[in-house]
Specification:
Two copies of one chain form a homodimer.
Chain A lengths: L2 H9 L4 H8 L6 H10 L2 H9 L3 H7 L5 H10 L2 H10 L2 H9 L3 H8 L4 H11 L15 E3 L5 H11 L8 E5 L5 E6 L1 H5 L6 H4 L7 E2 L4 H11 L3 E5 L5 E6 H19 L14 H28 L1 H6 L2 H4 L1 H24 L8 H32 L9 H32 L4 H29 L5
Parallel strand pairs in A: 1-2, 4-5
Antiparallel strand pairs in A: 2-3, 5-6
Helix pairs in contact in A: 3-4, 4-6, 5-7, 8-10, 14-15, 15-22, 16-22, 19-20, 19-21, 19-22, 20-21, 21-22
Chain lengths: 459, 459
């Protein structure tokens, strides 16, 4: 029976196939079951999950999305919930409790046995964005003085067959990290060798308080699949595998992309986010931007005399301000991303500034020239009549575009750096600030240049 | 001696410490050497690299950025280049040749021995974005009929101590994949067991032609650290490790973010991109957007009679069109990201459309109300005089905002889906299309509503 058929049966309330599927079929990854449960309506998914044997439930649980996890724990019996939550691997357990808040968190913490409860409690004390929140506290340690054969014997007795046994940690009697050994080295070397003989003396660690971004950067730099996490005394507290970091990197990027589009980062995927929460996330920034942009009406108000004398000036307002906005958002994107990937730091501001002023000038010249040519062509082909002073108007557009694109580029590149300097997240706050600033000042630049060039003619 | 001191020495042209460092100091990861070389001027880096022993050069080479790699191969002797390029691990070799073009590629291909040359040649035949470009063709295989002890013996004789030995592949006599076994299972089980006894019958594969995005999704779904890559006949051709995918995911996101900001994806990090190439990448889109936005001047031209009669209408143009643009870019961001993460497909268009029309209406009502109140307050506190028909003007703004935000939201959500339908990349082309469309049509909506409401008063 293939997945589609099973899916159909589940939707019809027939969970027998799922039962077989989760129970007997060794070939199936628990994620396949999780995917099927996500594809059917929540009520059906809850029923189907309840029909699974508890060992399958425990395997499938970590692969479910956080919303479904919450509902399941609320639905199943307390005994089952206690079993599942205690049996989860420590990183999956932390991920579940991280998604709970307040009373809910403390209620379900009480289901854990003392050891697990203390461990979860400790880790939840670290910031949301810290490596601590991702670590697995089950790991395999050995003493450096034994032989490979003895180490293998020790592992066989004390360690389960989980991914945390891919790398073995050599620690001293105080639990301080000496080195890490990929388990393959036990296989590839003579079992009579001492552990000390197969150490390469090279290991990379993370601290509990490092951010998830730090972890992503370290994994990329050193090509590791798992890194040990230690405290200040170099005592090994947990391990972090790269696949968990892959999620963290993707979440970071999703947040960054959404912030860029002027949306507060969503907590759940778009399709799972409720309508109300979607509106809330969008309305916040939309209102902030709207209120900021109201300044454009105020700015235009100052120039209403000029506009009534020369209506033609108003025609180019959208073109002028959108050019400022576009060049500003280009610069902001490049700088924010480079800072997120740690290619740039605040210290590079002078390098960035020089470069962006020059870029702004070049890009402004290009757009200004196109704008000038546009007016000249429309005028001379009689597509629109800009009046007898069309040449001066074209010059106004030319110089305004240079000024505004330079200003957009400069603000777009500097605002993220300044925000970072003040410990604010550049991704969250740059877009609205750049947009508002560039639009409002763009209008001032445009009408000021117009006043200078067109004075005594149409103004 | 710490890294900073060594760095200082290198900059002064004293490479002795680097020599010791790369040569004797087992504790140091090759990436540390690479980072130091990247931190000094290119000329110094080339000199310093040349002074390293060839074994260190080979280890450090993969960690250097592509620009420096190219320059190094051009600078060092042909013998050295031949040695290094042949000794690289197959994925690093492919990465190097992928960055070369045309004549340069074929010149340096000639440095490889026949086997490597053929392998590189084969893989370069696959698309840039395919999994094939990332695979490592060195992997460890065993026959299912032997015992664990025999398998260990086989690996010791035939396999180097590299990360590709973390997972062992069980293949039949034709090279067809039967299962994969993490090497830890050899250690955790009785050596007298047959391989068939420790198989779990569950493996996930990638195809050579799968995209890098497919690979990212699979690694995330199945929590694996390495996946086998096979052809259509299930013959094992290579393996892909998750850390290489981490790079791929980050590159994809960087491209997406840059496209969003209206910049063509950069080939190198911002700081390494030359000024000229930076301008080229930015000017292209900036010009496209500018030419598109010129339509706003045309659209405004059609309403110049209205504007000269009621200059006050012009004051709200920036506010009105930026609201359309912002709501459009919110919607586009959410949809594009959800499609990139495979949470949404083209088939969901109807779900998205209903949802976004409703969101647009709600958000439009919110902004419209704020806009209305803004005018009422300014008028009644005498901050600006909108004239005797200020109430009708406020109504115009109210209805225009509802219309434009709904339109922005709808276009922002549908354009990415339509582009995807026509096999175009939604991330690349959505931003400019949405911006231009919403700005131009926004003006038309605004002036049309104004004409209806204000006819016979100020118009």
């Amino acid at each position: 029976m293939n997945l589609k058929d099973i899916n159909k049966k589940i939707t019809k309330g027939d969970f027998s196939s799922l039962l077989n599927f989760g129970n007997n079929n060794k070939n199936v990854h628990p994620n396949e079951v999780a995917k099927m449960l996500s594809a059917v309506p929540t009520e059906t998914a809850l029923e189907a999950f309840s029909s699974l044997p508890i060992t399958t439930q425990t395997k499938v649980f970590p692969y479910l999305d956080k919303l479904l996890q919450k509902k399941i724990v609320k639905t199943i019996t307390k005994t089952r919930a206690t079993y599942i939550l205690n049996e989860l691997s420590s990183d999956d357990r932390i991920a579940y409790y991280s998604s709970l808040k307040g009373v809910e968190r403390s209620t379900y913490l009480d289901l854990l046995d003392e050891k697990n409860k203390d461990a979860v409690h400790d880790i939840l004390g670290y910031p949301d964005n810290s490596v601590a929140r991702l670590i697995n506290t089950e790991f395999a340690t050995i003493n450096p003085k034994i032989t490979i054969a003895e180490a293998i014997e020790h592992l066989r007795k004390n360690h389960r067959d989980t991914e945390t046994a891919n790398v073995i940690y050599v620690v001293d009697n105080d639990g301080k990290l000496i080195d890490d050994i990929p388990v393959r080295r036990f296989v590839l070397n003579d079992p009579q060798k001492k552990i000390t003989e197969i150490l390469d003396g090279s290991y990379i660690t993370l601290k509990m308080t490092d951010t998830k971004e730090d972890a992503v950067a370290k994994f990329k730099e050193y090509d590791r699949i798992v890194l040990p996490v230690t405290n200040e005394d170099n005592i090994l507290l947990g391990v972090l595998t790269v696949d968990d970091v892959l999620d963290a990197a993707e979440q970071r990027d999703t947040k960054e992309i959404q912030n860029f589009g002027g949306v507060e980062g969503l907590d759940y995927p778009y399709v799972k986010t409720t309508f109300f929460s979607l509106i809330k996330k969008r309305a916040t920034w939309l209102i902030v931007l709207f209120v900021g942009e109201m300044l454009t009406a105020t700015a235009m108000g100052y120039f209403d005399a000029e506009i009534s004398k020369a209506v033609v000036l108003a025609l180019f307002v959208p073109l002028i301000i959108s050019s400022g906005g576009n060049s500003g958002s280009q610069a902001a994107t490049l700088i924010i991303r480079a800072m997120a990937l740690k290619e740039l730091t605040i210290k590079d501001w002078w390098f960035v500034m020089r470069r962006e002023i020059l870029s702004g000038l070049t890009l402004g010249l290009i757009l200004g020239t196109i704008g000038f040519i546009r007016i000249a062509i429309w005028q001379n082909l009689h597509l629109y009549n800009y009046g007898e002073y069309w040449f001066l108007l074209a010059l106004t557009i030319f110089f305004s575009l240079i000024g505004i694109v330079m200003w957009g580029t400069l603000s777009g590149s500097m605002i993220p750096i300044i925000l970072k300097k003040f410990k604010l997240d550049p991704a969250t706050s740059s877009a609205p600030l750049v947009a508002t600033l560039v639009d409002v000042t763009g209008l001032v630049i445009y009408f000021t240049i117009a006043a200078i060039i067109l004075k005594g003619t149409i103004l």
